[in-house]
Amino acid sequence: MLAPHPFGTEITVQQLLALFSDKSQWEDRYRQLIQLAKQLPPLPEELKQQQLELKGCENRVWLGHQLNEDGTLHFYGDSEGRIVKGILAILLTQIEGKTPQQVIEIELMALFDQLGIHQQLSTSRSQGLDSLVSAIRQTAESCL
């Protein structure tokens, strides 16, 4: 497996909901995003290829994938920005190990609303989130 990470396997959506449930202030959610970013292993330099770099993000972001033999997807990525990397970790938690059809059916933005993050993002970070979600959907569609 290329670039393994704990999101979607060791760290689940339910655990994210629990982590953020007692964070009423944006600063606390911000710190939690940074903690998630620290848990996402850095992407090896050889995987930071130009074709994996997403456009439309405030920070440099790489998103790659592989289709596993069992028909599920493994996504991996990295970002130079801590908040964006935390956002990526939340997305990876939702999509890791899912089939392309399951990924398409997930309302990826809903979790960000539940965690109280989406409404707090700056315009540029919100656009970056949109770019990540779009890239994930396009990848899943291309794997069908």
TrEMBL record:
Coiled coil: none
Superkingdom of origin organism: Bacteria
Catalytic residues of the enzyme: 57
Transmembrane segments: none
SUPFAM superfamilies the UniProt entry points to: SufE/NifU
Domain Fe-S metabolism associated span(s) in chain numbering: 20-138
Family designation: Belongs to the SufE family.
Entries under PANTHER family matching the protein: SUFE-LIKE PROTEIN 2, CHLOROPLASTIC, SULFUR ACCEPTOR PROTEIN CSDE
Name of the featured protein: Cysteine desulfuration protein SufE
